[in-house]
Design goal:
The chain has 14 helices and 12 strands. It is of the alpha/beta class.
Length: about 375
């Protein structure tokens, strides 16, 4: 494997390694200059040493989370439908008294169900509040609401790994973006590339959604907007796994930091397409045993509890490491996200709060819960 010298202050590009640059005639590489070539060489640029880059890559998730400021007001807007459904909570708790607590708790559970929390999760939340009421720890409606929110935050955080990006200790890190049709995968990938490029991370995209011609064109636009390189299929019948593996090989040869791999949207019930997705992951692992570092599943915030069986199936097929919640346009049904995290113990890592380049925010559980409740 070709690696950059740790004693050099620049990433110098060496002759192509035959092990990794077997450029297929079905693959086209778009460089940042907009050219299409099979073995495009990038210009030399000064940077830190290879070992420093690897160390920074391992800390990158934390850096992004610390630098980003959650746009809570826009989260409020995105969850306006859920907030309307949960407005009854304040009404129920305004005149709360101990003698009516059981009836009020039942109505709180119903409010959570209406807001797509799911039966199992709603019951778990209200039972936790009930125990505190019976123990005499909650003596007012304000206390109950605070406990309700605290328990939801706990469900979002206690059983999951870190919500930061986990990119490992070697370059390139590989991130696969998966999900059902129309969820916003390609847009999410583009916004993530923008965030990485802001940290001077060298990004290459893989246009692995070969079943939808417009997807490649869309991703190519994002590559130009973010100054990223992109590998696309050169013919109609190119397999997604072939495109993605070629991007990983190029990343190895040309010292890229991160590979962002787009994949075809598919229904979780389509066996053949899900097997294709499994093949994409295998292709990556054959080249780098520790990759992919992240498999991020995009969840459409408007689909409600339908996202739960989708998440289950994708996790079973490719091992989802994190979720990205998209389409917070005022009709998003936020409660279902809590059910997905609670059942699968997989963290939400980002939320999409708009169409702009900077509208992909690292997930913060407390801000999320505050956005759900009026």
């Amino acid at each position: 494997m070709a690696t950059a010298s740790s004693s050099s202050c620049c990433w110098l590009h060496r002759p192509c390694c035959s092990q990794f640059l077997r450029a297929s005639s079905s693959i086209i590489i778009h460089t940042k200059a907009g050219k299409q070539e099979a073995g495009a060489r990038l210009s030399v640029r000064c940077s830190s040493s290879s070992s420093e880059r690897v160390g920074f890559l391992g800390r990158l998730g934390r850096v992004i989370k610390e630098k980003a400021k959650s746009d809570v007001e826009r989260l409020f807007s995105g969850f306006s439908k859920t907030r309307e459904n949960l407005a009854v909570v304040d009404e129920l708790l305004t005149y709360w008294n101990l003698s009516d607590s059981e009836q009020i708790l039942d109505e709180l559970e119903e409010a959570l169900l209406v807001s797509d929390f799911g039966p199992r999760t709603a019951l778990k939340i209200v039972d936790s509040v009930r125990k505190e009421v019976l123990a005499g720890k909650l003596t007012s409606g304000i206390d109950i609401k605070a406990s309700l929110k605290k328990n939801i935050v706990t469900l979002l955080t206690q059983k999951v790994s870190s919500s930061e990006l986990q990119l490992g200790t070697r370059r390139p890190a590989v991130i696969m973006i998966v999900g059902v049709n129309g969820g916003g995968k390609t847009t999410t990938l583009g916004k993530l590339a923008h965030r990485l490029r802001k940290e001077d991370i060298k990004v290459i995209m893989a246009a692995g959604d070969t079943f939808r011609a417009a997807a490649t064109e869309q991703l190519d636009v994002w590559a130009k907007r973010t100054g990223s390189e992109i590998v696309v299929a050169g013919k109609d019948n190119a397999r997604p796994a072939s495109v993605i593996s070629q991007a990983v090989r190029r990343a190895l040869d040309k010292d890229f930091d991160v590979v962002l791999a787009d994949t075809s949207g598919r229904l979780h019930t389509n066996y053949n397409l899900m097997e294709e997705l499994r093949a994409c992951k295998r292709a990556v692992t054959k080249i780098i045993a520790s990759a992919p570092n992240e498999v991020l599943m995009v969840l459409d915030g408007t689909t409600g509890l339908n996202m739960l069986p989708q998440a289950r199936e994708f996790n079973e097929v490719v091992g989802v490491s994190g979720f990205v919640l998209t389409k917070l346009d005022g009709t998003a049904r936020g409660g279902c996200v809590v059910s997905v995290v609670d059942e699968l113990s997989i963290p939400v890592k980002f939320v999409g709060i708009g169409e702009g380049l900077d509208d992909l925010q690292p997930f913060d559980a407390e801000s999320f819960v505050n956005a759900l409740f009026p």
